[in-house]
Amino acid sequence: MFMLKPLWQRYLVSEVFHVRFAEDGKLLVMAGIDKEPKGLYIFTRGSKPFMSIVSKGLSIRYCDQRTSRLLIHSMEDQAVLLDSYKLIPLSEEDLLRVCEFEEGYKEYEEITGAQASYVLALSDVVLFFGADGVMRMIKSGKIMKNIDIGAIVIYARVCEEHLILVTPVDVLVVELNDYKVVKKIEFEEVEDWAFSPDCKYIAVADSFGHSIRIHKLPEGHIVARREYLTPMREDFDNSELFRYTLKPWREPRSPLSIDWYDNLIAVGTSDGMLYVYEVYQGSTP
Predict the structure, then answer these.
(1) Is the pLDDT score of 24 beyond 90?
(2) CA dist., res. 169 & res. 152, Å (int)
């Protein structure tokens, strides 16, 4: 079993709907209301941000929400590139150039006649996942095969000999040799997800289930789970924590975002909390 050891936490006032680690371990966090961004924070290993921006005029654009190097944060013609942590001028033309692979969706939509929910390019074939729940294998501009997945795929990744598909309510494990679904891991609502560095585990933020779960791939069995409840008053002596936990009963709250870097997992919740955990195996660190 995996254990999640709390390292630190921060209260960021509004919903923490986006957490992403960069390649150097720095953590980019966005908070807002109803997923409308109001603040951006960048943390080092500790709990204090070395850069924070709070503004009413923030807007977020993604090239790919799981590819941190291509995440764009635009603000009055400025942008933060996650791999450099610098505010730079960024015009709409610049943004389209950085996200030029999005135009590839249109190319494949013209080939298939379907709307894309996700596109994954492999070495010899392109996997086009349609909003109709059908995966189309495209090679040299032609459809080679149609496979009914029966679900809208919002993300796909190859882990060793398996294709891992994320849908709004489950994670599917697919064999690459015949593209058959061999395992379905069900959730109430998949809000966000992250893979371990070795791609042997997937961590999922289940917003309706008010929990995060870690499952082993490709077997699918659960190795860790953490639920999120609003703490009762007597749970904390720390007045700083108590300030935002005045309710005398336990109430569910939702994890909205999750990411995994090395042995660290970051989680953002609907009540404005940012948590960072150390992941380890066994009952003691």
Answers:
(1) no
(2) 10
Count of C-beta atoms within a 10 Å radius of residue 164: 22
> Which of 124-133, 156-165, 244-253 bottoms out in mean pLDDT, i.e. has the lowest?
244-253
Token readout for 247 is: 């309710």
Does the structure show a pLDDT above 50 at 238?
no
What residues pair up with 256 in beta bridges, in sequence order? Answer: none
Q: Which two tokens stand for residue 283?
A: 């009952």
Q: State the burial class of residue 135 (Cβ atoms within 10 Å of its Cβ: 0-12, 13-18, 19+).
A: buried
User: Which tokens sit at 262?
Assistant: 């090395």
For the chain, domain boundaries: 2-281
Q: Distance (Å, rounded) from C-alpha 103 to C-alpha 97?
A: 10
Architecture of domain 2-281: 7 Propeller (2.130)
Peptide bond into 218 cis (omega under 30): yes
Residue 121 vs residue 52, higher pLDDT: 121
Contacts of residue 181, defined as CB under 8 A and 6 or more positions apart, other chains included, come to 149, 172, 173, 174
Six-digit token string for 83: 């791999």
Q: Alpha-carbon distance 144 to 9, whole Å?
A: 49
Q: pLDDT value at position 111?
A: 93
Sign of the dihedral defined by the CA atoms of residues 24, 29, 30, 35, in that order? positive
| pLDDT surpasses 60 at 102 | no
pLDDT at 59 over 70: no
Alpha helices by DSSP H, listed for the chain, are 92-98, 102-112, 239-242
Q: How far apart are CA 160 and CA 200, in angstroms?
A: 9
CB distance 254 to 210 below 8 Å: yes
Going by C-alpha positions, the residue among 156, 164, 98 that lies closest to residue 127 is: 156
β-strands 15-21, 27-33 pairing: antiparallel
